[in-house]
Amino acid sequence: MSATIFHNPKCSTSRKALARLQDAGIEPEIVRYLDTPPTRTELVRLIADAGIEVRAAVRRREPLFAELALADASDDALLDAMAEHPRLIERPFVVTDRGTRLARPVESIDEIL
């Protein structure tokens, strides 16, 4: 099975998701999304494929979220902000042949393994 993880090695949840994939015998493609951020179009696809709302894909605890006054922002404004500032993207997204999940909680990726 092929898999891709949008990974931040500094994030414990992201590291746990990567370990879960590896424990399942999967060596995923690792996309360090802070270095190689997804485009806005890719974000739209990831979010839709994961079956979540745009707001669920935003790191609301990130200080930049408050600095940019995104609490009441529209989906379009949130997507624009995430595309411009990848620190705002919740992590990690995991994509396999069986689907896409935002690995929060990490166990949610079991559905696509």
UniProtKB/TrEMBL annotation:
PROSITE patterns: ARSC. InterPro entries: Arsenate_reductase, Arsenate_reductase-like, Thioredoxin-like_sf. Keywords: Oxidoreductase. The lineage of its organism: Bacteria, Bacillati, Actinomycetota, Actinomycetes, Mycobacteriales. PANTHER family: ARSENATE REDUCTASE, ARSENATE REDUCTASE-RELATED. It comes from the Bacteria. The keyword Lyase does not apply. CDD domains: ArsC_ArsC. This is arsenate reductase (glutathione/glutaredoxin). It is an enzyme of class 1 (oxidoreductase). The keyword Oxidoreductase applies. Its EC number is 1.20.4.1. It holds the Pfam family ArsC. Belongs to the ArsC family. It comes from Williamsia maris.
